[in-house]
Protein 1
Amino acid sequence: MSLFDQVPTVPLDGTFALMEACRVDAHELKVNLTPGIYRDENAKTWVLPSVKQARAALLADQSLNHDISPQLGYPQLLSAARQLVFKDTLDGRFITSMQTISGTGANHFIASLLSSHLRPRTVWVPNPTWDNHREIWRHVDPGIEQRNYPYYDHETCGIDGDALLSTLKEQANTGDAIILHACAHNPTGVDPSPELWEGIAQMCEEKGIFPIFDLAYQGFATGDADNDASAVRHFTTRSSSGNSSTLEFAVAQSFSKNFGLYSERVGALHVVARTRDGAARVEGMLKRISRAEITSTPAFGARIVAAVLHDPVLKAQWRQDLRTMNGRLGDMRKRLYDGLTRRNTPGSWGHILTDIGMFSMTGLSPEKVAVLKDRFHVYLLPNGRLSVTGLTEGNVEYVAESIYQVVKH
Ligand SMILES: Cc1ncc(COP(=O)(O)O)c(C=O)c1O
């Protein structure tokens, strides 16, 4: 008998469970297409050359100590992180930036801040979305209702913009929050057009809905970090009816993917306010939340990101590293598409070429995904999401053949 006998049994997290199942799968042809982790052509987690250089310099620095960071985080990280998101678009705005435990921590902190102070009745999440959005909000405040807004249209393999806007216009309430993937949407690989972003901004402004940008893949949509910040920057620079936009919003930024620093947990939360007083209050409250939850942020990964972004030579190398990753993903998309269409695989596959970022939806049902795993040892998420990062020249034909075998019946 234990006090904990009454604790509900929680099923394993789907993504981690699949990664573990794949790890222990002894089949020589197994292919892991589940995680959003960039792998190189040998299916190994890539250490970016820019990161390697910055890391070597840090490790060689005998004066480096392990003093605690200031409460908002490592200052050089925060200035670089903010510049990477907003560049010079913040005229007349006030922003609070705080280092977080990667993108997950940034999502968590903004959920905590809103839950205790803006008290949204509902948080709107795209259908589909990163599974952890729901977990984070449920964990922070089960009293906040979670609702889906329409996003992916399985017929067109694109976004149903009309349904998205009309649902929110008709059903969202003032004070609600909405999660928006800033670029390279996970899991679908499709992003709103500039016109749709403006429609979303207008709708948020008119209805008084608080936008939260989740920026986990900056650099993976187009290969260029500035282009990939365009939706966020639009929210700061747009004007409505000749006046500057009144929107206040947050950005949850992750450096896991675009620096390959998955285990270092580097991220930042930026909250854009319209008054200096509002920003100061946000800062105070974020410090309080951070003190209670983590006291201070880890510095090693933050120092690496800051070193790269503050050094013009390393930054140029990093931009090249982004292009290298995107180039390989584009090549794998083409090879998978060719492999599927050469076999006349039933289904529509053109979107594999036009989707962006790490992911594409295959349209495979959970049953077919299970067959793919059990018979062919090819691992996808149950919703049919394929992570292009796990494809290599050595396995892409096998994956195409396996998908063909599973869907041909
Ligand atoms: C959409 C999205 N947001 C946030 C994250 C957070 O990742 P991390 O906490 O590693 O930065 C992920 C990771 O997969 C993601 O896909």
Protein 2
Amino acid sequence: MSWLEGIHYQGRQWGNRALDRHLRVGVTGLSGAGKTAFITSLVHQLTLGDQPAHLPFFSVVAQQRYLGGRLASNQPLSLPRFPYEHNLRHLQQRPAAWPPSTTGWSQLNLTLRYKPAHGVRARLQSHSELNLELIDYPGEWLLDLPMLQQDYQAWSHFCWALFAQPHREALSRVFAERLRQADLNNLAELELQQLTDAYSALLQEFRAHAGTYLHQPGRLLVPGELAGAPMLQLFPLLPEQLSAPSPLLQKLTEHYNSYCDYVVKPFYKQHFARLDRQVVLVDCLSALNAGEAAMQELQQALRLIMQSFRYGPASVVARVFKPQIHKVLFAASKADHVTPEQHKALTLLLQQLLQQPIKHSHYAAAQSEAMALAAIRASQAGYIEQGGQKQPCIRGFELGAAQPVTLFPGDVPSTLPTAELFKTHPFQFPALAPSTLDVQQPLPHVRMDHALEFLLGDKLR
Ligand SMILES: Nc1nc2c(ncn2[C@@H]2O[C@H](COP(=O)(O)OP(=O)(O)OP(=O)(O)O)[C@@H](O)[C@H]2O)c(=O)[nH]1
Ligand SMILES: [Mg+2]
């Protein structure tokens, strides 16, 4: 954005913020949590879903005061735009496909028009408007935020403590050995790049085989526009290599500091420092499938992320000059992968998983709600007869399958399972492909109306 365009855009935002007509909603979640699907669905519901039968718990729609939403005309021309239409095309194609994993950040602005419910505005105005700003980014980049609270040495210790855990230890042995053989006085470009490549391969192996969540730095997995930048030559030295000064230690410390200053801080400032409301999406079902260590690491990753945000009440002054998040929706995503009577347990599990992360964050002043939802429902829920009894089931296409299946995916534990339960009872929740959709109709969902009511309902009165 040019500086002049930037000033105009900021000025308009401040004006709208002061008038309480602007909301910046941050959709946060680790990679694969469902951020892109959530934003795509949210935009689709807000631009097409004006039928009370489709969004019964979204009060502005239920009360028939919603006049519609449109993609805003003030979308900044020089910022990457969220590929909304492209995502819809994936859902619409035959066979339908999920939108691809995100490789860079993008933004979408929406203008929502509604009739005020009561008060002076209702008497004087035929309609009011609310501007909504949504951003999307690769989940991997979110885990860079906690790096700001550490220096290179502390980060390296943290990484090797993590890599020593049983589910990571075997995979990290080869890289540890490679580091042990490295000459700490050798700063040759080729050597630095080879060590970085080995570390980046290790991160990919963790992600693919160990069911892990904490991968830092995120730009080694999804570099975005930074591919090839020297500061991405970054990996943790072994604890014993940190105690004495060395040229390699000094070089890596410089890269770490540059990474924090030129990548992580601007990312935070640009996207998260001005959030008014936040959605934290968590894919609890995939973590259950991946086992006990994955579940623990998910909890640790959420705790680190929650510490990076600023929460507080929403006075007008705070909203304009020092925005803080004052409403947080915690959502267990992909609830359509289980039968509806399991949703209660899924929500309780999410709450228990988040108990510790919330306790460690500066979170007290925010309002929150937890729920299980599916941004884009890929299954039909129903019942089958078995031994004269009605059993709940879902029907959908498993990823890659040509024929639909009818199945009971299993019970969701309402508390964090014990190690014993993980051993004796492996979870196998399915992953479903989207059914081919008519995108002229609002996307099928589970509880997106509850989510919209919590996030936007009070601003549309
Ligand atoms: N059944 C179902 N699957 C979903 C839903 N939302 C997401 N998924 C699945 O989860 C995968 C990841 O969803 P995304 O929206 O791409 O996740 P993301 O958080 O944007 O991930 P990154 O872009 O990698 O950070 C999708 O490809 C789907 O397989 C949903 O509402 N229902
Ligand atoms: Mg995405």
